Amino acid sequence: MLNLSSESPYDVIVCGGGHAGCEAALASARMGAKTLLLSGNIDTVAQMSCNPAIGGLAKGHIVREIDALGGEMAVNSDATGIQFRVLNASKGVAVQSPRAQCDKKAYQFRMKSVLEATPNLSFFQAVATAIITDGKVIRGVKTNLGADFYGKTVVLTTGTFLKGLMHVGSSKTEGGRMGDFSALTLSDSLAENGIEIGRLKTGTPARISGKSIDFSKCAVQYGDNPPTLFGFYDTRDIPVSEDFPCPTHDENSKMFHVEQSLGWAGFVGFGREQLACYETSTNEKTAEIIHKNLHRSAMYGGEIKGIGPRYCPSIEDKIVRFSHKDGHRLFLEPEGRFTDEWYINGLSTSMPLDVQVDIIHSVAGLENAEIFRPAYAVEYDFAPPTQLYPTLESRIIEGLFCAGQINGTSGYEEAAGQGLIAGANAAAKVFEKEPIVLKRHESYIGVLIDDLVTKGTKEPYRMFTSRAEYRLLLNHGGAEYRLGEHAARLGLISPARAEKIASKKQAVEKWINKFEENGTALKMRRAGGLTGVSVPSAFMSLSKNAIDEVVYKLVYKGYLERDLRQIEKSSAYENVKIPESLDYSKVLGLRLEAGQKLASVRPSTVAQASRISGVSPADISVLLVHVKASK
């Protein structure tokens, strides 16, 4: 029942129904919190505004971590995937990462159905226009309907909608996404309450008709068979289905099927009948067209003030920055199983429509391409994330949490990971539970959040494996072993699944010890895996995930132990807490610049302080002495 009473507020109000909002609402509701999800348009909940794909380098790791923490993105991607691939398959296991091309509408519809069926979760269409506070404490949100909603905590997951402004050349349209609305007043309300606001920019390429593509001029790209899925199905109580092949070592096994396996509309999911993608590239003619019209680009013409993503640049930015290259790779990706709309990955631009047509028609295979939707850039407000605690709660407004692009990130996966943590911590605050703060050696989500709240960002942040100093410990297949206890403690997963994760972890440790004792481990290291190594049938009866984890930990044992020693050495800093009220101007011997940086970020631990740009090892030594002396 919809609740408008200030006397019995919701436990958690989530504003925004994108990937961060969905995970935030599901996490808090699954923990038992009375949750309200407000979305400006419930027809576009979980909309894939840009690329219809989930995962990729480092991002795939995040999706598996979301699954280990009880989130929905992994299962939703598996159930609606139309092509599955492991990227970096020729490289080491630690940097290999799963990716799934998804049916855009199926992904959205299934996620909406999960939200609607979740206990403790209410759903309502309205645009949040302002936050309601009592001093520096959150009390709820105002909406465009003139109705106020009250909550003990609020999670903002606003995406690109805060004063969203779209650019196609010199043409400007208000909106956070083509065909959608713009939240024009919420960021003003945040600023009025003392929260700093900045401006960022991102973009998306044009969509074209598949029947107008000459695929004979493009290189075909098939999915993996069998597919590598995101979800950990060996720890779920899901009925076995005859319909799907099992992605394990045993080809005769049956696939665990997810709920109704989306039988509607003939959709089967799980990589069956995967669709192909295609590759082409720009050329000298493309570059010539762009150089000739550079002054008409919204970005280069001065129309856009926000800072764009360095690691996902527009095509005009690529042509200017990498002028020595003969061309740039483009990937043609289907938007769904039942649509002829195709996404041109790598051709994001803010050029006028007539220039976009010329650019697309200059590419091999796209000479006669018919454009369905134009490419565009979008500017939007964000709140620099150094204003947040590692829990993603605001340092300025108690009970206000932020996740996703409002924190300066880009990407569905980064948003979803933050959303899950923010939603879980909002519920934990209401229930007076210890919040979840993931460490950098535990997960990519931990690296992501620590980077944001410690270093901040001046451009849309994107996750890479290189950002994690202990990435060998963060192989995507090990997410459940690292994070299962966190999920169980907060009630993000069922007791039955928590027990299965614990049992699997015990089995992995048992076989690691057994193989070390009988010499099999040495043979695995020499072989670089199981090839040519004789192992008991009892071991091969484990799930593929458990087998892979045993082999990984044995083959890379020396490297893993080296990282663990380094972590143990630095744990002294991790365990030294810094008082929130510490006056850095009174820390004798601390440089002025370091004191100002520390006062701005207000790190929780000495280890976090050591990662702040502009704070030197000498400053850390001074700070450490001061903190220990004050205790």
Report on this model:
With about 625 residues, the chain is an alpha+beta fold. It has 19 helices and 22 strands. Strands 1, 2, 6, 7, 8, 9 and 22 form a seven-stranded mixed beta sheet that branches. Strand 10 and strand 11 form a beta hairpin. Helix 1 runs parallel beside helix 9.
> Low-confidence stretches at least 5 residues in length (pLDDT < 50)?
239-267
Structural class of the secondary structure composition?
alpha+beta
- Please state the CA-atom Rg, rounded to the nearest Å: 25 Å
Described by the principal axes of the CA atoms, the overall outline is globular
| Helical content band | 25-40%
Annotation, overall tally of beta strands: 22
What order do the helices and strands come in, and which of them pair?
Elements: E1 10-15, H1 19-30, E2 35-39, E3 53-55, H2 59-68, H3 73-80, E4 81-87, E5 97-102, H4 104-117, E6 121-125, E7 128-134, E8 137-143, E9 148-156, E10 165-168, E11 171-174, H5 186-192, E12 198-204, E13 207-209, E14 219-221, E15 240-245, E16 254-256, E17 277-281, H6 284-292, H7 315-321, E18 329-334, E19 341-345, H8 353-361, E20 371-373, E21 376-382, E22 400-402, H9 412-430, H10 444-455, H11 479-490, H12 495-518, H13 520-527, H14 537-540, H15 544-555, H16 557-574, H17 592-601, H18 606-610, H19 617-630
Helix pairs in contact: 1-9, 2-9, 2-11, 3-4, 6-8, 11-12, 12-15
